Protein backbone atom coordinates (compact mmCIF):
# COMPACT_ATOMS: atom_id res chain seq x y z
CA UNK A 1 0.00 0.00 0.00
CA UNK A 2 1.44 3.31 -1.05
CA UNK A 3 2.08 5.88 1.68
CA UNK A 4 0.16 9.15 1.44
CA UNK A 5 2.02 11.87 -0.36
CA UNK A 6 3.58 14.57 1.79
CA UNK A 7 1.81 17.93 1.64
CA UNK A 8 3.35 20.34 -0.81
CA UNK A 9 4.56 23.49 0.97
CA UNK A 10 2.90 26.74 0.05
CA UNK A 11 5.26 28.48 -2.37
CA UNK A 12 3.04 31.28 -3.61
CA UNK A 13 4.74 34.64 -3.94
CA UNK A 14 1.77 36.34 -2.31
CA UNK A 15 0.34 34.93 0.88
CA UNK A 16 -2.88 35.95 2.63
CA UNK A 17 -0.84 37.22 5.56
CA UNK A 18 1.17 39.45 3.21
CA UNK A 19 -2.03 40.89 1.76
CA UNK A 20 -3.37 41.61 5.24
CA UNK A 21 -0.12 43.27 6.29
CA UNK A 22 -0.02 45.29 3.09
CA UNK A 23 -3.57 46.55 3.51
CA UNK A 24 -2.95 47.45 7.14
CA UNK A 25 0.31 49.24 6.46
CA UNK A 26 -1.14 50.98 3.42
CA UNK A 27 -4.03 52.32 5.51
CA UNK A 28 -1.66 53.68 8.15
CA UNK A 29 0.62 55.15 5.47
CA UNK A 30 -2.35 56.81 3.76
CA UNK A 31 -3.51 58.33 7.07
CA UNK A 32 0.00 59.67 7.74
CA UNK A 33 0.16 61.11 4.20
CA UNK A 34 -3.18 62.87 4.64
CA UNK A 35 -1.90 64.30 7.91
CA UNK A 36 1.17 65.62 6.10
CA UNK A 37 -1.01 67.19 3.40
CA UNK A 38 -2.85 69.10 6.12
CA UNK A 39 0.43 70.83 6.93
CA UNK A 40 0.87 72.33 3.45
CA UNK A 41 1.67 75.95 2.84
CA UNK A 42 -0.56 78.06 0.66
CA UNK A 43 -0.43 78.90 -2.16
CA UNK A 44 2.78 76.86 -2.73
CA UNK A 45 1.09 73.64 -1.49
CA UNK A 46 4.38 72.34 -0.05
CA UNK A 47 4.15 70.05 2.99
CA UNK A 48 5.92 71.34 6.09
CA UNK A 49 6.74 67.79 7.19
CA UNK A 50 6.04 64.40 5.68
CA UNK A 51 5.33 61.71 8.36
CA UNK A 52 4.96 58.75 5.92
CA UNK A 53 8.72 58.82 5.34
CA UNK A 54 9.33 58.27 9.04
CA UNK A 55 6.74 55.50 9.14
CA UNK A 56 8.26 53.66 6.18
CA UNK A 57 11.83 54.07 7.43
CA UNK A 58 10.97 52.75 10.89
CA UNK A 59 9.19 49.75 9.36
CA UNK A 60 12.12 48.96 7.07
CA UNK A 61 14.50 49.10 10.03
CA UNK A 62 12.66 46.67 12.30
CA UNK A 63 10.91 44.29 9.87
CA UNK A 64 12.12 41.16 8.15
CA UNK A 65 12.83 40.93 4.40
CA UNK A 66 9.34 39.76 3.40
CA UNK A 67 7.60 42.45 5.46
CA UNK A 68 9.95 45.09 4.08
CA UNK A 69 8.95 44.32 0.50
CA UNK A 70 5.30 44.30 1.51
CA UNK A 71 5.73 47.72 3.14
CA UNK A 72 7.45 49.14 0.06
CA UNK A 73 4.67 47.99 -2.27
CA UNK A 74 1.88 49.10 0.07
CA UNK A 75 3.59 52.43 0.75
CA UNK A 76 3.99 53.13 -2.96
CA UNK A 77 0.31 52.45 -3.65
CA UNK A 78 -0.83 54.49 -0.63
CA UNK A 79 1.39 57.42 -1.63
CA UNK A 80 -0.05 57.49 -5.15
CA UNK A 81 -3.60 57.44 -3.77
CA UNK A 82 -2.85 60.16 -1.20
CA UNK A 83 -1.33 62.46 -3.82
CA UNK A 84 -4.33 61.93 -6.06
CA UNK A 85 -6.75 62.66 -3.21
CA UNK A 86 -4.66 65.70 -2.25
CA UNK A 87 -5.15 67.24 -5.67
CA UNK A 88 -1.77 66.59 -7.28
CA UNK A 89 -1.60 65.55 -10.89
CA UNK A 90 -0.64 61.94 -11.70
CA UNK A 91 2.82 63.03 -12.87
CA UNK A 92 3.46 65.09 -9.74
CA UNK A 93 2.09 62.33 -7.55
CA UNK A 94 4.31 59.74 -9.24
CA UNK A 95 7.35 61.99 -8.84
CA UNK A 96 6.69 62.58 -5.13
CA UNK A 97 6.02 58.88 -4.61
CA UNK A 98 9.27 57.75 -6.18
CA UNK A 99 11.25 60.23 -4.10
CA UNK A 100 9.39 59.62 -0.84
CA UNK A 101 9.65 55.84 -1.13
CA UNK A 102 13.22 55.79 -2.40
CA UNK A 103 14.64 57.98 0.37
CA UNK A 104 13.54 55.76 3.32
CA UNK A 105 14.69 52.66 1.44
CA UNK A 106 18.16 54.15 0.90
CA UNK A 107 18.41 55.41 4.49
CA UNK A 108 17.31 52.02 5.85
CA UNK A 109 19.90 50.26 3.70
CA UNK A 110 22.65 52.50 5.09
CA UNK A 111 21.54 52.16 8.70
CA UNK A 112 21.11 48.39 8.56
CA UNK A 113 24.60 47.97 7.13
CA UNK A 114 26.09 50.36 9.67
CA UNK A 115 25.50 47.86 12.48
CA UNK A 116 24.77 44.17 12.74
CA UNK A 117 21.20 43.23 13.56
CA UNK A 118 18.06 45.36 13.62
CA UNK A 119 18.55 49.06 14.16
CA UNK A 120 17.37 50.53 17.46
CA UNK A 121 17.91 53.68 19.48
CA UNK A 122 19.90 52.06 22.27
CA UNK A 123 22.67 54.64 22.66
CA UNK A 124 23.53 58.22 21.84
CA UNK A 125 25.61 56.98 18.90
CA UNK A 126 22.51 55.39 17.39
CA UNK A 127 20.64 58.70 17.56
CA UNK A 128 23.47 60.64 15.93
CA UNK A 129 23.84 57.94 13.29
CA UNK A 130 20.13 58.24 12.50
CA UNK A 131 20.21 62.04 12.33
CA UNK A 132 23.28 62.33 10.14
CA UNK A 133 22.04 59.59 7.82
CA UNK A 134 18.75 61.46 7.45
CA UNK A 135 20.53 64.71 6.69
CA UNK A 136 22.60 63.03 3.97
CA UNK A 137 19.86 60.95 2.35
CA UNK A 138 17.37 63.79 2.70
CA UNK A 139 19.69 66.14 0.86
CA UNK A 140 20.16 63.60 -1.93
CA UNK A 141 16.43 63.08 -2.35
CA UNK A 142 15.73 66.81 -2.05
CA UNK A 143 17.22 67.45 -5.49
CA UNK A 144 14.63 65.41 -7.46
CA UNK A 145 11.98 66.44 -4.94
CA UNK A 146 12.70 70.12 -5.55
CA UNK A 147 12.57 69.49 -9.29
CA UNK A 148 9.06 68.04 -8.89
CA UNK A 149 8.03 71.10 -6.84
CA UNK A 150 9.44 73.57 -9.37
CA UNK A 151 8.19 71.89 -12.52
CA UNK A 152 5.06 70.29 -11.10
CA UNK A 153 3.78 72.88 -8.61
CA UNK A 154 5.18 75.99 -10.30
CA UNK A 155 7.36 77.24 -7.43
CA UNK A 156 9.87 79.60 -9.06
CA UNK A 157 12.83 79.36 -6.65
CA UNK A 158 14.65 76.02 -6.86
CA UNK A 159 16.79 76.80 -3.77
CA UNK A 160 13.77 77.50 -1.56
CA UNK A 161 12.09 74.36 -2.87
CA UNK A 162 15.24 72.31 -2.16
CA UNK A 163 15.49 73.53 1.45
CA UNK A 164 11.75 73.13 2.05
CA UNK A 165 11.67 69.56 0.70
CA UNK A 166 14.81 68.61 2.59
CA UNK A 167 13.55 69.93 5.93
CA UNK A 168 10.07 68.48 5.53
CA UNK A 169 11.47 65.00 4.92
CA UNK A 170 14.02 65.21 7.72
CA UNK A 171 11.51 66.55 10.25
CA UNK A 172 8.97 63.91 9.26
CA UNK A 173 11.49 61.16 9.86
CA UNK A 174 12.80 62.73 13.07
CA UNK A 175 9.28 62.86 14.51
CA UNK A 176 7.87 59.50 13.40
CA UNK A 177 10.79 57.06 13.08
CA UNK A 178 11.72 57.13 16.81
CA UNK A 179 8.06 56.49 17.59
CA UNK A 180 8.05 53.44 15.33
CA UNK A 181 11.35 52.12 16.69
CA UNK A 182 10.23 52.60 20.28
CA UNK A 183 6.61 51.49 20.14
CA UNK A 184 6.38 48.95 17.30
CA UNK A 185 8.09 46.22 19.31
CA UNK A 186 5.45 44.40 21.31
CA UNK A 187 7.49 44.02 24.45
CA UNK A 188 6.21 44.82 27.88
CA UNK A 189 6.18 48.51 28.74
CA UNK A 190 7.99 48.85 32.05
CA UNK A 191 6.97 51.81 34.16
CA UNK A 192 8.78 53.02 37.25
CA UNK A 193 7.01 51.83 40.42
CA UNK A 194 4.67 52.50 42.09
CA UNK A 195 2.26 52.39 39.16
CA UNK A 196 -0.36 54.73 40.61
CA UNK A 197 2.17 57.49 41.10
CA UNK A 198 3.61 56.72 37.67
CA UNK A 199 0.15 57.28 36.15
CA UNK A 200 -0.13 60.59 38.00
CA UNK A 201 3.33 61.50 36.73
CA UNK A 202 2.37 60.71 33.11
CA UNK A 203 -0.72 62.90 33.35
CA UNK A 204 1.29 65.73 34.87
CA UNK A 205 4.07 65.40 32.28
CA UNK A 206 2.07 65.28 29.08
CA UNK A 207 -0.81 67.37 30.37
CA UNK A 208 1.55 70.12 31.45
CA UNK A 209 3.54 69.86 28.22
CA UNK A 210 0.44 70.08 26.03
CA UNK A 211 -1.04 72.97 28.03
CA UNK A 212 2.16 75.01 27.91
CA UNK A 213 2.71 74.20 24.23
CA UNK A 214 -0.81 75.37 23.36
CA UNK A 215 -0.24 78.57 25.31
CA UNK A 216 3.10 79.20 23.60
CA UNK A 217 2.28 78.33 20.00
CA UNK A 218 -1.26 79.69 19.79
CA UNK A 219 -0.20 83.19 20.84
CA UNK A 220 -0.57 85.72 18.03
CA UNK A 221 2.59 87.29 16.70
CA UNK A 222 3.83 89.95 19.13
CA UNK A 223 1.86 88.51 22.08
CA UNK A 224 2.85 88.34 25.74
CA UNK A 225 6.57 88.36 26.39
CA UNK A 226 6.77 85.25 28.59
CA UNK A 227 4.85 83.03 26.22
CA UNK A 228 6.65 84.35 23.16
CA UNK A 229 9.61 82.12 23.95
CA UNK A 230 9.53 78.36 23.53
CA UNK A 231 12.36 77.71 25.96
CA UNK A 232 10.12 76.80 28.96
CA UNK A 233 9.12 73.72 27.00
CA UNK A 234 12.61 72.28 27.38
CA UNK A 235 11.89 71.54 31.04
CA UNK A 236 9.57 68.68 30.11
CA UNK A 237 11.94 66.84 27.77
CA UNK A 238 14.64 65.76 30.24
CA UNK A 239 11.78 64.65 32.46
CA UNK A 240 10.28 62.51 29.69
CA UNK A 241 13.66 61.16 28.54
CA UNK A 242 15.05 60.21 31.95
CA UNK A 243 11.85 58.73 33.34
CA UNK A 244 10.29 57.08 30.29
CA UNK A 245 13.28 56.68 27.95
CA UNK A 246 12.87 56.73 24.16
CA UNK A 247 9.14 56.08 24.24
CA UNK A 248 8.50 59.04 26.50
CA UNK A 249 10.85 61.37 24.62
CA UNK A 250 9.48 60.47 21.17
CA UNK A 251 5.88 61.02 22.34
CA UNK A 252 6.81 64.43 23.77
CA UNK A 253 8.54 65.40 20.51
CA UNK A 254 5.42 64.45 18.55
CA UNK A 255 3.21 66.70 20.69
CA UNK A 256 5.50 69.71 20.32
CA UNK A 257 6.18 69.15 16.61
CA UNK A 258 2.51 69.05 15.65
CA UNK A 259 1.66 72.19 17.62
CA UNK A 260 4.78 74.12 16.59
CA UNK A 261 4.64 73.40 12.85
CA UNK A 262 0.86 73.73 12.57
CA UNK A 263 0.64 77.09 14.33
CA UNK A 264 3.77 78.54 12.72
CA UNK A 265 2.37 77.71 9.30
CA UNK A 266 -0.75 79.68 10.23
CA UNK A 267 1.00 82.75 11.54
CA UNK A 268 0.95 82.05 15.28
CA UNK A 269 3.60 81.35 17.87
CA UNK A 270 7.03 82.64 18.87
CA UNK A 271 8.64 81.94 15.49
CA UNK A 272 6.32 84.24 13.56
CA UNK A 273 7.90 87.58 12.71
CA UNK A 274 5.92 89.95 10.47
CA UNK A 275 9.18 91.32 9.10
CA UNK A 276 10.64 87.92 8.17
CA UNK A 277 9.92 85.80 5.15
CA UNK A 278 7.52 82.92 5.56
CA UNK A 279 10.20 80.38 4.65
CA UNK A 280 12.46 81.76 7.39
CA UNK A 281 9.69 81.44 9.98
CA UNK A 282 9.03 77.83 9.01
CA UNK A 283 12.73 77.10 9.01
CA UNK A 284 13.02 78.35 12.62
CA UNK A 285 10.10 76.17 13.71
CA UNK A 286 11.55 73.12 11.99
CA UNK A 287 14.99 73.83 13.43
CA UNK A 288 13.47 74.14 16.91
CA UNK A 289 11.74 70.78 16.57
CA UNK A 290 14.88 69.13 15.19
CA UNK A 291 17.14 70.39 17.97
CA UNK A 292 14.57 69.48 20.61
CA UNK A 293 14.20 65.98 19.18
CA UNK A 294 17.95 65.44 18.91
CA UNK A 295 18.69 66.52 22.48
CA UNK A 296 15.84 64.59 24.09
CA UNK A 297 16.43 61.41 22.08
CA UNK A 298 20.17 61.43 22.78
CA UNK A 299 19.43 61.77 26.49
CA UNK A 300 16.82 59.01 26.39
CA UNK A 301 18.97 56.62 24.33
CA UNK A 302 21.95 57.24 26.59
CA UNK A 303 19.78 56.33 29.55
CA UNK A 304 18.70 53.15 27.75
CA UNK A 305 22.35 52.26 27.20
CA UNK A 306 23.02 52.90 30.87
CA UNK A 307 20.07 50.72 31.88
CA UNK A 308 21.38 47.86 29.77
CA UNK A 309 24.88 48.30 31.15
CA UNK A 310 23.48 48.24 34.68
CA UNK A 311 21.51 45.09 33.84
CA UNK A 312 24.63 43.41 32.43
CA UNK A 313 26.59 44.53 35.48
CA UNK A 314 23.97 43.13 37.85
CA UNK A 315 23.96 39.85 35.93
CA UNK A 316 27.75 39.72 36.02
CA UNK A 317 27.79 40.51 39.73
CA UNK A 318 25.21 37.80 40.39
CA UNK A 319 27.23 35.19 38.49
CA UNK A 320 30.39 36.41 40.22
CA UNK A 321 28.66 36.15 43.62
CA UNK A 322 27.47 32.62 42.87
CA UNK A 323 30.98 31.56 41.91
CA UNK A 324 32.68 33.15 44.92
CA UNK A 325 30.11 31.74 47.32
CA UNK A 326 30.36 28.24 45.85
CA UNK A 327 34.11 27.69 45.63
CA UNK A 328 36.01 26.56 48.72
CA UNK A 329 38.65 29.25 48.42
CA UNK A 330 38.36 32.62 50.15
CA UNK A 331 38.16 35.42 47.61
CA UNK A 332 38.83 38.95 48.80
CA UNK A 333 39.44 42.41 47.36
CA UNK A 334 40.96 45.42 49.10
CA UNK A 335 42.22 48.90 48.33
CA UNK A 336 45.92 49.09 47.31
CA UNK A 337 46.92 50.18 50.82
CA UNK A 338 44.87 47.31 52.30
CA UNK A 339 43.09 49.87 54.49
CA UNK A 340 39.58 48.98 53.30
CA UNK A 341 38.01 45.67 52.37
CA UNK A 342 35.94 45.88 49.19
CA UNK A 343 34.71 42.29 49.21
CA UNK A 344 35.30 39.01 50.99
CA UNK A 345 33.55 35.73 50.25
CA UNK A 346 31.61 33.86 52.95
CA UNK A 347 34.26 31.11 53.08
CA UNK A 348 36.36 33.54 55.13
CA UNK A 349 34.26 32.68 58.18
CA UNK A 350 34.99 28.96 57.76
CA UNK A 351 38.76 29.37 57.34
CA UNK A 352 39.60 32.29 59.62
CA UNK A 353 36.86 31.55 62.14
CA UNK A 354 35.82 35.19 62.14
CA UNK A 355 32.80 36.95 60.64
CA UNK A 356 32.99 38.84 57.37
CA UNK A 357 31.51 41.87 59.12
CA UNK A 358 34.48 41.96 61.49
CA UNK A 359 36.88 42.03 58.54
CA UNK A 360 34.97 44.87 56.88
CA UNK A 361 35.13 46.77 60.16
CA UNK A 362 38.79 45.96 60.87
CA UNK A 363 40.71 45.08 57.67
CA UNK A 364 43.89 44.57 59.67
CA UNK A 365 42.57 41.36 61.17
CA UNK A 366 43.35 39.57 57.91
CA UNK A 367 47.08 39.87 58.66
CA UNK A 368 46.77 40.06 62.44
CA UNK A 369 45.56 36.47 62.49
CA UNK A 370 48.88 35.25 61.03
CA UNK A 371 50.89 33.01 63.35
CA UNK A 372 53.63 34.98 65.15
CA UNK A 373 56.34 32.77 63.65
CA UNK A 374 55.08 33.50 60.10
CA UNK A 375 54.45 37.24 60.33
CA UNK A 376 57.85 38.01 58.89
CA UNK A 377 56.72 36.35 55.64
CA UNK A 378 53.84 38.80 55.26
CA UNK A 379 55.63 41.84 56.65
CA UNK A 380 55.59 43.42 53.19
CA UNK A 381 51.81 43.20 52.99
CA UNK A 382 49.49 41.23 50.75
CA UNK A 383 49.47 43.59 47.76
CA UNK A 384 51.66 41.16 45.83
CA UNK A 385 52.06 37.85 47.62
CA UNK A 386 52.26 34.17 46.75
CA UNK A 387 53.04 31.83 49.60
CA UNK A 388 51.89 29.88 52.63
CA UNK A 389 51.55 30.89 56.26
CA UNK A 390 49.74 29.79 59.36
CA UNK A 391 46.83 31.58 60.98
CA UNK A 392 45.52 31.30 64.51
CA UNK A 393 41.75 31.12 64.82
CA UNK A 394 39.94 32.66 67.80
CA UNK A 395 39.43 29.14 69.23
CA UNK A 396 43.20 28.60 69.20
CA UNK A 397 43.24 26.23 66.24
CA UNK A 398 46.11 26.68 63.79
CA UNK A 399 45.39 26.46 60.07
CA UNK A 400 47.72 26.57 57.10
CA UNK A 401 46.66 29.00 54.35
CA UNK A 402 48.04 29.46 50.85
CA UNK A 403 47.43 32.99 49.56
CA UNK A 404 47.99 34.42 46.11
CA UNK A 405 47.26 38.11 45.57
CA UNK A 406 48.05 40.73 42.95
CA UNK A 407 47.14 44.34 42.18
CA UNK A 408 44.56 45.27 39.54
CA UNK A 409 45.60 48.29 37.48
CA UNK A 410 43.55 50.80 35.52
CA UNK A 411 44.16 51.87 31.93
CA UNK A 412 46.97 54.16 33.13
CA UNK A 413 48.80 51.40 34.95
CA UNK A 414 47.89 52.69 38.42
CA UNK A 415 46.81 50.03 40.96
CA UNK A 416 43.26 50.66 42.12
CA UNK A 417 42.55 47.45 44.02
CA UNK A 418 44.19 44.28 45.28
CA UNK A 419 42.50 40.92 44.83
CA UNK A 420 43.52 37.65 46.36
CA UNK A 421 42.55 34.02 46.79
CA UNK A 422 43.30 32.17 50.03
CA UNK A 423 42.97 28.41 50.30
CA UNK A 424 43.00 26.27 53.43
CA UNK A 425 45.84 23.76 52.93
CA UNK A 426 45.92 22.35 56.46
CA UNK A 427 44.98 18.86 55.26
CA UNK A 428 47.72 19.00 52.65
CA UNK A 429 50.25 20.10 55.25
CA UNK A 430 49.16 17.31 57.63
CA UNK A 431 49.51 14.78 54.82
CA UNK A 432 52.95 16.14 53.95
CA UNK A 433 54.02 15.91 57.58
CA UNK A 434 52.75 12.34 57.86
CA UNK A 435 54.59 11.47 54.68
CA UNK A 436 57.77 13.02 56.03
CA UNK A 437 57.52 10.97 59.23
CA UNK A 438 56.91 7.81 57.22
CA UNK A 439 59.91 8.52 55.01
CA UNK A 440 62.08 9.03 58.07
CA UNK A 441 60.88 5.75 59.55
CA UNK A 442 61.59 3.91 56.31
CA UNK A 443 65.03 5.43 56.07
CA UNK A 444 65.72 4.42 59.66
CA UNK A 445 64.47 0.91 58.96
CA UNK A 446 66.70 0.63 55.93
CA UNK A 447 69.64 1.78 57.96
CA UNK A 448 68.88 -0.76 60.66
CA UNK A 449 68.50 -3.52 58.07
CA UNK A 450 71.97 -2.71 56.83
CA UNK A 451 73.20 -2.97 60.41
CA UNK A 452 71.28 -6.22 60.81
CA UNK A 453 73.10 -7.73 57.83
CA UNK A 454 76.40 -6.97 59.42
CA UNK A 455 75.48 -8.40 62.81
CA UNK A 456 74.24 -11.88 61.68
CA UNK A 457 77.06 -14.48 61.96
CA UNK A 458 77.12 -17.13 59.26
CA UNK A 459 79.04 -20.42 59.14
CA UNK A 460 81.55 -20.35 56.34
CA UNK A 461 81.17 -24.11 55.71
CA UNK A 462 77.46 -24.96 56.02
CA UNK A 463 76.06 -21.43 55.45
CA UNK A 464 73.85 -21.64 58.53
CA UNK A 465 73.29 -18.89 61.06
CA UNK A 466 75.37 -19.35 64.14
CA UNK A 467 74.09 -18.48 67.57
CA UNK A 468 77.32 -18.43 69.41
CA UNK A 469 76.52 -15.56 71.77
CA UNK A 470 72.77 -15.01 71.40
CA UNK A 471 72.77 -13.32 67.97
CA UNK A 472 69.60 -15.08 66.95
CA UNK A 473 67.78 -13.59 69.91
CA UNK A 474 68.71 -10.12 68.62
CA UNK A 475 67.37 -10.94 65.17
CA UNK A 476 64.14 -12.31 66.57
CA UNK A 477 63.65 -9.26 68.74
CA UNK A 478 64.27 -6.89 65.81
CA UNK A 479 61.75 -8.72 63.60
CA UNK A 480 59.10 -8.63 66.29
CA UNK A 481 59.67 -4.91 66.91
CA UNK A 482 59.77 -3.64 63.32
CA UNK A 483 57.47 -6.04 61.43
CA UNK A 484 54.21 -7.88 61.82
CA UNK A 485 55.88 -11.26 61.31
CA UNK A 486 56.25 -13.91 64.07
CA UNK A 487 59.06 -16.40 64.52
CA UNK A 488 58.22 -20.12 65.00
CA UNK A 489 60.37 -22.39 67.14
CA UNK A 490 59.82 -25.89 65.65
CA UNK A 491 62.56 -28.52 64.93
CA UNK A 492 63.41 -29.31 61.35
CA UNK A 493 63.33 -33.04 60.24
CA UNK A 494 67.12 -33.35 59.87
CA UNK A 495 67.76 -32.09 63.34
CA UNK A 496 65.05 -34.43 64.66
CA UNK A 497 66.82 -37.48 63.09
CA UNK A 498 70.08 -36.39 64.64
CA UNK A 499 68.41 -36.08 68.03
CA UNK A 500 66.94 -39.64 67.77
CA UNK A 501 70.32 -41.11 66.95
CA UNK A 502 72.04 -39.20 69.71
CA UNK A 503 69.35 -39.77 72.33
CA UNK A 504 67.80 -43.31 71.79
CA UNK A 505 66.18 -43.33 75.23
CA UNK A 506 64.22 -40.22 74.29
CA UNK A 507 62.94 -41.92 71.11
CA UNK A 508 61.91 -45.09 73.04
CA UNK A 509 59.99 -43.03 75.55
CA UNK A 510 58.19 -41.37 72.70
CA UNK A 511 57.15 -44.75 71.23
CA UNK A 512 55.78 -46.01 74.55
CA UNK A 513 53.77 -42.86 75.02
CA UNK A 514 52.17 -43.19 71.59
CA UNK A 515 51.37 -46.92 72.15
CA UNK A 516 49.73 -46.38 75.49
Strand order of the largest sheet: 2-1-5-4-3
Order of helices and strands: HHHHHHHHHEEHHHEEEHHHH
Structural class, by secondary structure, is alpha+beta
Tally of extended strands? 5
Oligomeric state as shown: single chain
Overall number of domains: 3
Task: Give the C-alpha Rg.
Answer: 47 Å
Unreliably modeled segments: none
Distance between the termini: 102 Å
- Estimate the mean pLDDT confidence: 82
Helical proportion?
Answer: 55-70%
User: Shape from CA axes?
Assistant: elongated
What's the number of helices? 16
User: What proportion strand?
Assistant: 5-15%
What composes the largest sheet? Answer: 5 strands, antiparallel
GO molecular function: protein histidine kinase activity
EC number: 2.7.13.3
Organism: Gemmata obscuriglobus
Protein name: histidine kinase
Q: Can you offer a commentary on this structure?
A:
It is a single chain. The relative contact order is 0.05. The longest helix has 49 residues, at 278-326. This protein has 3 domains: 16-314, no CATH class; 327-424, Beta-Lactamase; 456-508, no CATH class. A hairpin with a 6-residue loop joins strand 1 and strand 2 (341-344). The chain has 16 helices and 5 strands. Helix 1 (16-37) crosses helix 3 (65-85), helix 6 (158-183) runs parallel beside helix 9 and helix 15 (493-502) packs across helix 16. The protein has 516 residues and is α+β, with helices and mostly antiparallel strands. 62% of the residues lie in helices and 8% in strands. Strands 2-1-5-4-3 form a 5-stranded antiparallel sheet. One of its GO terms (cellular component) is plasma membrane. InterPro entries: MASE1 (IPR007895), PAC (IPR001610), PAS (IPR000014), PAS-assoc_C (IPR000700), PAS-like_dom_sf (IPR035965), PAS_fold_3 (IPR013655), Sensor_kinase/Photoreceptor (IPR052162). The chain crosses the membrane at residues 20-39, 91-111, 131-155, 161-183, 195-217, 223-242, 249-265, 285-304. It is an enzyme of class 2 (transferase). Residues 385-437 form the PAC domain.
Amino acid sequence: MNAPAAPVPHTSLVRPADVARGLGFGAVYFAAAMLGLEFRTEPERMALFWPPNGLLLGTLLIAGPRVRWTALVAGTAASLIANFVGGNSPVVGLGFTLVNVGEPWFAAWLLRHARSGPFELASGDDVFRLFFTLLATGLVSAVPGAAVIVFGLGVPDFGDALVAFWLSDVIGVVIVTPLVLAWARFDRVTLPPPLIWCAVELVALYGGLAALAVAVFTEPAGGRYVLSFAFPLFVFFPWAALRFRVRGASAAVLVIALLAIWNTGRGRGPFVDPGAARAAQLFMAQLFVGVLALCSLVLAATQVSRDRSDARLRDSEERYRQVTETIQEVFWAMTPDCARVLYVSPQYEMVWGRTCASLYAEPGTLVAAVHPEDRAAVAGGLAWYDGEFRIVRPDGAVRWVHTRSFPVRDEYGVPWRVVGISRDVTDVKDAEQARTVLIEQLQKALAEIKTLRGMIPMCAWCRKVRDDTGFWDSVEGYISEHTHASVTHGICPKCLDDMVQRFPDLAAAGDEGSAG
